[in-house]
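Quick one, tokens below. Sequence please?
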């Protein structure tokens, strides 16, 4: 019985230790993560709008991914109120970058323009 318990404990410790993700693996996963890039792009766009709560932002499509710099360029459409409070259709282009040092996504450039 003792041997069985020790065997199970040893296997549990071994399996737990094997499942840890290294920093390099996490950076690679995050750098290529479209979902994290989407969430960052939409959040960053909302900081650039005058009325972010009323905005209807379509899911962006990926225009370009650079895996060396972890930079994603995304484009899409949104409907938001302008400075006069009127709802207007816009196109947007957002550049988001995953910073390997801080382990965080950041928005860099947001072009919002009328088509």
């Amino acid at each position: 019985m003792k041997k069985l318990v020790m065997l199970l404990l040893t296997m549990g410790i071994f399996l737990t230790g094997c499942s840890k993700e290294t920093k390099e693996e996490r950076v690679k996963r995050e750098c290529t993560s479209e979902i994290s890039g989407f969430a960052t792009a939409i959040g960053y766009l909302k900081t650039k709008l005058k009325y972010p709560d009323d905005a209807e932002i379509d899911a962006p499509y990926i225009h370009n991914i650079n895996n060396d710099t972890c930079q994603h360029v995304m484009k899409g459409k949104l409907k938001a109120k302008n400075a006069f409070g009127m709802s207007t259709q816009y196109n947007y282009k957002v550049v988001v970058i995953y910073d390997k040092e801080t382990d965080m996504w950041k928005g860099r450039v947001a072009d919002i323009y009328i088509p």
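DSSP finds three helices and five strands in the chain. The helical segments are 2-18, 23-31, 34-48.
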